[in-house]
Amino acid sequence: MTDPALTPELVRQHNLTPEEYEAILKILGREPTYTELGIFSVMWSEHCSYKNTRPLLKTFPTRSRRVLVGAGEENAGIVDIGDGLAIAFKMESHNHPSAVEPFQGAATGVGGIVRDIFTMGARPVCALDSLRFGELSNPEVRRLFGGVVAGIAHYGNCFGIPTLAGEVYFDKSYEGNPLVNVFCLGVLRHDQIARGAARGVGNPVFYVGPATGRDGLAGAAFASQDLTEESADQQRGAVQVGDPFMEKLVCEACLELLATGAVAGIQDMGAAGLTCSTCETAARAGTGIEIELDRVPQRAPHMSSYEIMLSESQERMLIIVQQGREAEVKRIFDKWDLPWSEVGRVTDTGLMVVTHHGRTVASIPAKLIASESPVYHREARQPDYLQAVRAFTLAGLPDTADPVAALNTLLAWPTIASKNWVYRQYDHMVRNNTVVCPGSDAAVIRIKADSIPPAPEGRAAQSPAFTGEKLIALTSECNGAYVYLDPYEGGKIAVTEAARNLACAGATPLGVTDNLNFGNPHNPELFWQLQESVRGIGDACRALGAPITGGNCSLYNQSPNGPIDPTPTVAMVGLIEKPEHITTQWFKEAGDAILLLGQPVDMADPLQGLGGSAYLQVVHGRKTGLPPRCDLDTGRVLHEALRSLIFGGGIKSAHDCSEGGLAVCLAESCISQTLARNTPRRIGAHIDLSGIAGARLDALLFGETQHRIVITTSRLTAARTLAQAAILGVPAISLGTVGGDALVIQTAAGQWSWPVAGLHDSWWHSLARLMQPANA
Amino acid sequence: MHFAILQFPASNCDQDAVHAIRVLGHSAELVWHKDTSLGAAEAVIVPGGFSYGDYLRTGAIARFSPVMQAVRRFAAEGGLVLGICNGFQILCEAGLLPGALIRNRSLQFRCEHVHLKTATRDSPFTRRIPPDTLLRIPVAHGEGCYYADAPTLARLRAQDQILWQYCTADGVLEDYASPNGSVEGIAGICNERRNVAGLMPHPERACEPLVGSTDGRWILESMIP
């Protein structure tokens, strides 16, 4: 096969600008080969190089005394959790592949993030996913939603990782461009951290895992373009096909091999496959690397060097082995019946050299691909639509006349409704560590001895085996509507709500991984959204003591219908010190006192918390108004106060107010406990809000004022808890009592009652009903 | 008591079974699928997972593995063998248990706690379950719909081989209580000789208060003399 001639057209097709091509000429001192052009194209895509976002990402807080491996250093960040143990976690997107092929797109998203974690030497122990779709009335959206959930289930369940938290939002802006953000967390001991570096000149380079095919050619470049009408047909070949069975074997074999100490460096072949893994490992170690493509296992005949280098076939790893210890690789990979091949070695030339059929097809200074990659300071301009958003007032908006119907409608709104249709398809209990299942504010898992990879041989004697248990809480959050209406405030709210969820579970934040899903960065208004929300996230992470340890950017999220709502998804991980601190959101016993921590309604907000609210969207059909204000000090004090109360004992439940406001929060506290299949445990409550003056009724019930948490205590300790909250600097009031078969809310404007069975029905079955329309 | 826990490629509940047995105060070791001996095992657990990727059909490849020949001999000698989830599927494929497990009625994977009624306490897998006590144990499977033809079912009934059935929280056998549409709500059975049993629910995931249920202990402890 002859390579095509390098023309400006070919360069453009590779998404490289004329200036970027000039930079390539300068680095090489000559014209690139076709294979080299492909290599630069993927390495300098936004997906791999962060060329549009790097200046913004630098502003994030990334350090704390617990951070062992920080953002951008390796495949995932690592955080100390004490007793010599650490966790590795990261979130990544698979938006564009899922838009064209939802099942495999989502499945391979899980595969990719799981590989990122075991590449660090950690055993993957749980996953979560954050999903966004259009409205379920559209059959195409139902197909995408069903396919994505089935794909995540297929991969995660077979691999044997519990998928136990996440969120799903539905909004028209995601129609045609769904978001699939997947997160994985792994556990390891400090002395088990592996590095993605090609260290040790002369060390052999091994390729392990299944053969390379033509699937997923240049997926990273695909991820860095807008989706068009033709994407589905043209790009389906850029979507990879995943094999979770293979991944499970590769993971176990790699962890076993890492324990031998024979590994000098390890890197998964994710985006840009062999290209990215060889360049990055050499660049990190300051070495060179030479590989011979004839030795790469190949699935298809007559593959060109361009295809082999750019393939994104799944479940492959690059391992740099200590010279002389090759036999151990062979022994372990043969045991697991996995293909392996020695494909090259580490050199001191600083060059990444690729040969094929005896010919050098690429020779590139590895470090320069990374260090000389373009960086763009894009133009940012405040979007015009914000004028209308800011001008919105409540004048002319009638107060609610039918709160009973409004609450039922909100509970059935897909974004608020129970996500059991999703998580019952995920094995969320495999590995025997799930302490709080999906359905509470945050999921909780324990870490025990078998969560940790096998100990390095010979070192086991030095560090005693871990025999205890640790508890980790996880949550993810991002209300895209808020971010659309005020990117800075919306970014702050995403982080603060995630931290609030962790506090409700009794956890203290350890760190954050973020996934920035935005539109085309060349559009100044969309870039402004990105810039402002990054500022908001950074400020909130600083204020709440949660460093960002890594993440992912997914730009170009727009379909012919327009850009998505800006969605900087935040996944936050926290530590629970003692089992008795674990707190869930549902009411426990009749007679318990219900208290509210925080201001019932933020009266300094002219919209009283209704701006951008679910209520405004669902009942009035308007997505507008400035979202509720998020004062970070107030948030920090509230979270610390709640933790103090939980640590003191006696807090029986804690649930934060978010979408749908206080009424939805109370309803969920009544109906969200599930004992078993078809066996919810529902309990009513009597709430008295008649002492709260000044606010509109819709704002009081459904407004989304920030920094509010509903807690319960036994009746005897309620007064003491209110007094403690006051000392801790948090406003707190008594709301009522748990008990009965209905949620009854008394306000100055009247009293309303909802039988809990009806509330549960609206909330629990909504997604299943929408996914199976009567005549489908 | 010493348990052998089989380990196939892509077994993923193998460690969970080891952990549960140790929680009960007994010992367990993993036995690799290429091994031909079960060592000093006094009982065998075939754990859950996706053995060999469950390609072709769940459990269809695992039945041919070397270790399964050892399990056959062990069972023929009267040893206790319990298959959980994928392990149940493997034992059916291997002919050690009658019937088959097919796609769930919903055509979707189901992970949730279920209620189980113990149909007979006359087996080494149910004998310690307190009478009239429902078990609350998780399921997690895509192909757990038990099927057997009418003569086989009649035999299962006649020989008292049905061990567990899905039921409501009140102990009623209702169709909607089943997560998969199994015939007669069957969740687990044993062989005629009563030394080999299989069930779709995961007793090993229900042995500690921290993970939400300890009802699985009744099943595993029944196996211990």
Strand order of the largest sheet of chain A: 8-10-7-11-9-12-13
Percentage of residues in DSSP E strands of chain B:
25-35%
Instruction: State the CATH class of chain B.
Output: Alpha Beta
Total number of beta strands of chain A: 30
Mean pLDDT reading of chain A: 94
Helix/strand-derived category of chain A reads: alpha+beta
CATH architecture assignment name of the domain at 583-776 in chain A: Alpha-Beta Complex
Q: How many separate domains of chain B?
A: 1
What's the short story on this structure?
Chain A is an alpha+beta fold.
Could you characterize what this model shows?
The complex is a heterodimer of chains A (776) and B (225). Chain A contains 28 helices and 30 strands. Chain A is an alpha+beta fold and 776 residues long. Chain B has 225 residues and is α/β, with parallel strands linked by helices. Chain B has a single domain, classed as Rossmann fold, CATH 3.40.50.880. Chain B has five helices and eleven strands; from the N terminus they run E-H-E-E-H-E-H-E-E-E-E-H-E-E-E-H. Chain B has helices at residues 14-23, 66-76, 86-93, 150-158, 216-222; strands at 2-7, 27-32, 43-46, 80-84, 100-102, 110-118, 135-141, 145-147, 162-167, 186-190, 196-199. Classes of the chains: A alpha+beta (776), B alpha/beta (225). The A-B interface holds A 150, 153, 157-160, 243-246, 248-249, 336-337, 423-435, 437, 446, 448, 450, 469, 579, 674-679 and B 9-10, 12-13, 15-16, 18-20, 48-50, 52-55, 108-115, 136, 138, 140, 142, 168-169, 176-177, 179, 202, 204-205, 210-212.
